[in-house]
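Session log. Operator J.P. requested a structure for one protein chain; no other inputs attached. Running the standard single-chain path with token output.
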Amino acid sequence: MTADVFVIQDLIDAGRIVVGDGYRAKNVELGDPGTPFLRVANLNNGFLVDQAECLAEENVPRAGQKLSLPGDVVFTGKGTVGRFGFVRDNTPRFVYSPQLCFWRVLDPSLIEPQWLYYWMHGTEFQDQLASVSAQTDMAAYVSLRDQRRFTITIPPLPEQRRIASILGCIDDKIELNRRMNRTLESIVRAIFKSWFVDMTLSRELMISGESVPPSEEWPEIAFGDTVHILSGGTPRTGEPEYWGGEVPWYSVADAPTDADVFVVQTQKSITDAGLKNSAAQLVPALTTIISARGTVGTCAMTARPMAFNQSCFGLRPHEGFGIYYTYFSTLTVVDALRRSAHGSVFSTITRDTFRSVAVRKPPRHLVEAFEHAAEPLMNRVLLNVHETRRLVAIRDTLLPGLMSGALRHKAPAERPRNANA
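Structure written below.
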């Protein structure tokens, strides 16, 4: 089988593909009810549609073709460049923001949309993306003009479908794991909210053989008094013997999606010497980490002992509180801080911030009952995270060989041809 090389602009001119970016919404156009308005933060291992702001319903028609359609291939083209998504048939419809780019196949007899999604993960696209995103000293940016100059090697349609089928089966399982985690996490979150936020427990309810006193009798304390607050640090970057060791070193770039909760692996690691000769400290598994600067309020739970940088705090429960109670309580505190900021972004979290938020101190046996209820569900979340990580490794191992044809045949070098041919 042979493959043909096209210039993207030629495919656009021939009406075979659309390459676009998002709608430049004004703040006054946002509001509920409406259609989710997705930004970079809402594209991370899938579309986080439920976390997005909305474009008010009366303004949605103004977005025109910048509304998602099944089969769209999406990537972040500004700021954090290189996150990808594929709009499935069951993906809730949303509006693209200017930070997102979409490629929409108009001629499925030439290009299989899901194959296009995998092509973007391959070297042909990635090399072209890297060459243009690094052209500016400012934040990384890939313009539509740059994208239209890209070339694409398109194999015959049956080959595209074979590749999409193989990799798609793996991604279907990954997506199933993530949906399961969203369900499991939402169950635990709902229990926490019912018991400790809304406090809707009946006064007659018995937990572990003991009655639960009315919530108004629970003493009010500072959230900071429920946790040990641990600081992070960064070894000197100029000391190579401090880096590349066996100690995972967490930064907010390693944060999982909310539903996955656990951070299993980090982009960077440090050595024992780096740990010893810096402010970084090793925290045990099941420590809550919250980002305090930059992307403030992002939470994760460690799946293994690790260190973290100075832009984060580690939170461990005081006696009488639990590890999962601490994690979900932290999420609740972040929500409260965001509400108090009236929707704006709060710029930093300090130790005093934790002391400024008041919470009710629940009975110890109620916390223990919550830990008992949460543990098996959160263990299942962690097992899914580990399995997803293995599946991603398999997919990423197969992808280069499938896209290059090496797993089937060695394709000859081709030259760009006219898209109307």
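Operator note: The chain is about 35% helix and 20% strand.
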